[in-house]
Amino acid sequence: MEMQELTTFQQPEEIIQPFSIHCVGEVVIACSKDHTLVLRLKYRHIVEDNTVCYELSRIKCSTGRPTGALFANEVTLYNASSMEQRKQIMLDQTLFPNIAKVYLCNVKSWLSPSGVFEDNPRDLLIANLNNMGQLTIYRLEEQFKTSWNPYVDVSDTWQGHIYDNHPIESAEELQIMADEVTITCFSWESVIYQRPVRFVFGTKSGKIVLCHLGANGTKIVHVHQEEEAPRVIRYVSIPGQHHFILVGLESGRLAVYRFGTAGVLPQGAFVAQYIATYLDQDIAISAIECEVANDQLLILVVKATFLLAIEINFQGTLLGSVTLDTQDFMITGLQPIRPRNYIITTLPGTISHITVETTRSSATGLQIRQQKVQSDLNVSSYALYGVAASRTRSCWFFLGYPSRRFDHLALRSPTCIFFCRFNQQDALKTLLLNKTLKLVDFHDAAEVVRFHGNKAADSLKPLETVMLVLTLDEESIYQLKLQLIQLSAKISYYTKRTKTLSETLHVQHQFVCSLIEVIHACRVVCWLIDKYTYRTVLNTLQQGALRCLRNFIRTITVQTFPGDYEYLEADLKPKLTAVLASADRIDTPDIMHEVCSFCDAPIDQSSLACPDGHQVFRCVLTKISITLESEEVTCEMCQRYTIGPVMLGTIFEQDTTVFDYRQCCICDAPFRGISNG
Question: What residue segments make up the domains of the chain, in order of their start?
Answer without folding.
Answer: 1-10+290-425, 61-181, 186-285, 429-588
